[in-house]
Amino acid sequence: MRLWDTIYEVAEVLGSLERIGIIRADAIYGIGLDITGLIEQTLSFLIKGKDPRTAKRILRELDPSYDDWKRVDETTWAFDAKYVIIRNCPYPVRTVLIKAIDAKGELEYRHIYTSFSLKEMNEVEVVTSFRKRIDIEAIIRDDKYGLYIDNLRTKNFWGIWAYLLIACATHNLISLFRKRVLSGTGIEDLGIQAIVKKLADIPAKLEKEQQRMRIFFPAGHELARRFIQGKQNSHKGSILPLEKKLYN
Prior knowledge:
Layout lengths: L2 H12 L8 E3 L6 H9 L4 E4 L3 H11 L7 E4 L2 E9 L8 E9 L5 E8 L8 H8 L1 H15 L10 H24 L11 H8 L5 E5 L2 E5 L5 H13 L14
Parallel strand pairs: 1-2
Antiparallel strand pairs: 2-6, 3-4, 4-5, 5-6, 7-8
Helix pairs in contact: 5-7
């Protein structure tokens, strides 16, 4: 219910609405009112239509031939319905129909509304670009599990507020660590979950020597080895060679 709050908050962080990239949204936002707002704000979008019956209605009206459908993959095809008038939207909206074989072997039809013209993105590219939303969901899911915030610990509003604030601060610190420390090591693409459960779990020993700090890692840990070798190759920091033992 907070699509526009989110868009304006993102714009505030980025500096303007113009700096927002492609908005990929699920079917709950595939309605005329939201589509109208996105068009009037000249935002780029790929949004799944809310009601599958709309796809079937368009299909009956246009009656595309077999050759009009373009293969996306082994189970999915796309058809460009061009610009369609939808309810509660005064502007024609480019609409791409999707025909897919579901898990039961039956055909299902959906549709995607988009701001992109055919020259900018053909019907197959519309479908594949919209699917990147799944990748974004996977990243969010990995982050939630990595920080153990998939379940809230309290029902109290302020308790939830404080808990999520700490979780977000932790997420930002880990992201900063990945950018500043892991950059150039070859493991900078580790997800939050891998950093928390594997990299941060490596036992290490810290020694201070005047203005320097020495970190000793176990020789047998693969991530530790890759981390140190990457640091040595990128000439960043002051890292000693791997030690065979951590403690006497």
